[in-house]
Specification:
The protein is α/β, with parallel strands linked by helices. About 25% of the residues lie in helices and about 20% in strands. α8 runs antiparallel to α9.
Length: about 300
C-alpha cells in the first residue's frame, strides 16, 4: 500500500545494497543470488499519492479475486485492478511471496494469511512474532462481496509455483504470507523487517549463509536468535463503518487490545456508540480520518487450536 512506509523503505534499502537504486527495472545478474529474486513496490501509483490505494474505494490487496482478475477488461477499470493484472503472471510462477505491510494504528508485528496448514510452519518458525492471523471464513473481505480473499498471499497460495516447485514438491505450489510490521509510518521497524526478509531469503535458498551475513553487516542489522512463542488467531467478527465520522474511545486505537463482549470502541459524530460484538482481541482498526463508510472499521480475532 502506498502509505505504508516500512515496506517502501525496506525495498529501497535492498535495492541500494544490490546497486540498483538508479536502475531497478529489468533483469540483473548477481553471483550470490540463487534462482530469481524479485524485489518491487506493489502499488507505485498509490505510493505517488501517499495513499492506501490508487483509486477511490479500491485496494490492490483485494484485487486478486476472480471478480477482478477474471472479468473482461474495461476502460474504466481502477488503477489498482490494472496493477493486479500486471502482477498476476509473476505471481503464477512465484514459489515464495513475502508481502510487507503495516497497520493504520500502533500494533505488535504479526503475520497473516488465509488459512493455516502445516506447510506454513517452517516459515513462521523464522519470524519473531507472537501472533498469526488467519481468515478461513473470509470475514475480512465481505464488505466488498468477494468470493475469495483477493490478497497477494491468497493468489500465490492458490495459483503460484514454478517448475522448481514441481520438482521439489511433486506439484506446482506457491506459498505467500503478509508480514505486518507495525504502525505504517514507524520506519524504526525497518531493521527488524529487513532481518526477517533476509532470514527468509536464506531459508528458501535465494542466498547462502555467506551472503546472509554480508547483508546483515552492510545494513548494520543485528541478528535475532530467539523465537517468540506463536499463537494462531482467526478473524471471527468485523464491524463496518456506518459513517466516516468516528472517534475511538481512549485506548481503543491500539491493535491487539484484549476486549470482552460489549466494550465501548468509540462513537460517531451524532453520538451513536459502537461496542465490541464479541470477546477476543481488536485488530485492523482503521485510522481516524481514513475510515470509509460501509467498509471494515475493525475486526475481532480469537485464538484457535490447531
Amino acid at each position: 500500500h502506498g502509505d505504508e512506509l516500512t515496506g517502501i523503505e525496506l525495498v529501497k534499502q535492498m535495492l541500494a545494497v544490490f546497486g540498483l537504486s538508479q536502475d531497478p527495472s529489468g533483469v540483473h545478474e548477481a553471483p550470490l543470488i540463487y534462482g530469481n529474486l524479485f524485489m518491487g513496490f506493489g502499488n507505485p501509483a498509490a505510493i505517488d499519492l501517499n495513499a492506501r490505494g490508487a483509486s477511490e474505494n479500491s485496494d490492490l490487496n483485494r484485487s486478486f479475486s476472480s471478480l477482478d482478475i477474471g472479468r473482461k477488461v474495461r476502460p474504466d477499470d481502477p488503477v489498482d485492478v490494472i496493477r493486479a493484472r500486471e502482477l498476476v503472471p509473476l505471481f503464477e510462477r512465484t514459489d515464495y511471496l513475502f508481502d510487507i505491510h503495516a497497520t493504520s494504528n500502533d500494533s505488535y508485528p504479526f503475520v497473516c494469511f488465509g488459512e493455516y496448514d502445516a506447510r506454513f510452519q517452517s516459515i513462521l518458525d523464522l519470524i519473531p512474532v507472537e501472533r498469526v492471523i488467519t481468515d478461513p471464513l473470509l470475514i475480512y473481505t465481505k464488505d466488498q462481496g468477494l468470493p475469495e480473499l483477493g490478497t497477494t498471499d491468497y493468489y500465490v497460495n492458490r495459483f503460484g509455483g514454478s517448475e522448481w516447485s514441481k520438482r521439489r514438491f511433486g506439484k506446482k505450489q506457491g506459498l505467500g504470507i503478509c508480514y505486518e510490521t507495525g504502525q505504517q509510518e514507524d520506519v524504526r521497524r525497518v531493521p527488524l523487517a529487513m532481518f526477517v526478509v533476509i532470514r527468509l531469503m536464506r531459508h528458501v535458498g535465494s542466498i547462502k549463509e555467506k551472503m546472509e551475513q554480508n547483508l546483515y553487516n552492510r545494513l548494520e542489522i543485528e541478528r535475532i536468535e530467539r523465537q517468540a512463542k506463536q499463537r494462531i488467531y482467526a478473524i471471527t467478527h468485523r464491524v463496518d463503518a456506518r459513517s466516516s465520522d468516528f472517534k475511538y474511545a481512549e485506548g481503543m486505537k491500539d491493535g491487539w487490545l484484549a476486549v470482552g463482549k460489549g466494550c465501548l470502541v468509540g462513537e460517531y459524530g451524532d453520538g451513536e456508540r459502537v461496542y465490541t460484538p464479541a470477546s477476543g482481541s481488536i485488530v485492523f482498526q482503521r485510522k481516524e480520518g481514513k475510515i470509509d463508510q460501509g467498509r471494515c472499521m475493525f475486526c475481532i480475532v480469537q485464538e484457535i487450536a490447531l
